[in-house]
Design goal:
The structure is a single chain. By secondary structure, the protein is α/β, with parallel strands linked by helices. The protein has one domain: MoaB/Mog-like domain (Molybdenum Cofactor Biosythetic Enzyme, Chain A). The protein is 46% helix and 20% strand.
Length: 164
Amino acid sequence: MRWKVAILTASDRGARGERESTSALVIRELVEEELQGEIVEDRVVPDETDEVMAALIEMSDYHQADLILTTGGSGLQARDVTPEATKQVVEAEIPGFGELIRAHLASRNIRSALFRGTAGRRGRTLIVNLPSKPKGVSTAMLSIMPDLEAAMQALSGKGGEPEE
């Protein structure tokens, strides 16, 4: 199955064109090589709750992405609003993804306690917040890859419920 995947970068500087998201490039590469996914949308928005929410809703409802991966906006700064925006658009949170990411970041001596990312489902779309730095994105993606596949199969109705 070829999964439809959207990438959302929350970055004020990126939205102004002052910086390219190298983390989004890492996500793209891992999605295409490890998940055999097709990127249906790749967008950069400012760190504004309404902008992040609108992009997540459009990617889920209009582009009908199976998976939305976010990068940026999940740290401790006042403008880091991605987890809050995600929680406002999902119908159900899936805390295991954030917990798994934090555990793997900690095992690699990456500051996992500062990562506030979450995950959830909106309709048949899985939304997962990833760290903002390329090393953290790579570690996070590789740690959750088997669970991403199982969750998307369950949400799409093409697989059974994941084992508990």
